[in-house]
Amino acid sequence: MGVRDLVYRLYERRLEKKLSPDQIPRHVGVIVDGNRRWARAMGLRDVSHGHQKGADKISELLEWCREAGVEIVTVWLLSNDNLSRAKEELDPLMEIIEDTVRGLVAGGWRVNPMGALDLLPDRTARILKDAKEVTSRRPGLIVNVAVGYGGRREIADAVRSLLQEHASKGASIEDIVEVLDVEHIAEHLYTRGLPDPDLLIRTSGEQRLSGFLLWQSAHSEFYFCEAYWPDFRRVDFLRALRAYAARHRRYGN
Question: Is Magnesium one of the keywords UniProt gives this record (predicted)?
């Protein structure tokens, strides 16, 4: 172990000691940003190497979360806007996502896909649906895998689903208007049944959500990290937890 690694290890332990179990976020959302820029910074012409490096980091993140006591992790792998990327980049990226999901299943995680799966290639959508079915009864940490996800699309889908549900019962528009409220819409989100995220992390230095969990993040704490996602370290994760623990959550007050 080099001197630098030793220093980081000692710093990690110092951060861990300062974290109280009752200050750990229950639900953490992560925007895994910077894979392409990491590849270019490394001098790699094929950005799929960056996507693969980023995918490899996900299993590390989940282990860190489990060790810390986090119960739910939502990882944004691909937005619905990204589906318009050039085929020569999108096809390898889909294969990486498919392999990543298979790895999560094999690794014993409980996988819950979220996003507009109907916009994805049939094979990718099938792998995501199968992962949910196979792992739905597993105990422990829940991994929400956001693929083909967009916050505006999620809200539109939720309202559409709510309207269809009530219409199937013979309700009129007037009837629906009478019962339409925040709780009813929330029951039709991709994350229905789960608590909203307490902490949202974005890597690569960008300080915006880009539509990630628009509805659910109303009271979330945000943490922006300068490192590209493939370079995100456990010490960065612990810093995010420390920052979260230091904040006084006001819930809009």
Answer: yes
Residues making up the binding site for substrate: 34-38, 51, 79-81, 85, 202, 208-210
Q: What pTM was computed for the model?
A: 0.93
Domains of the chain, CATH where assigned: 30-245 (3.40.1180.10)
Tens of pLDDT, residues 174-225:
988 888 889 999 999 999 999 999 999 999 999 999 999 999 999 999 999 9
Interval 123-155: pLDDT, tens: 999 999 999 999 999 999 999 999 999 999 999
**Which residues sit in the known binding site?**
33-38, 51, 79-81, 85, 202, 208-210, 221
Alpha-carbon distances of 87 from 82, 126, 194, rounded to whole Å:
11, 20, 34
Active centre residues (catalytic): 33, 82
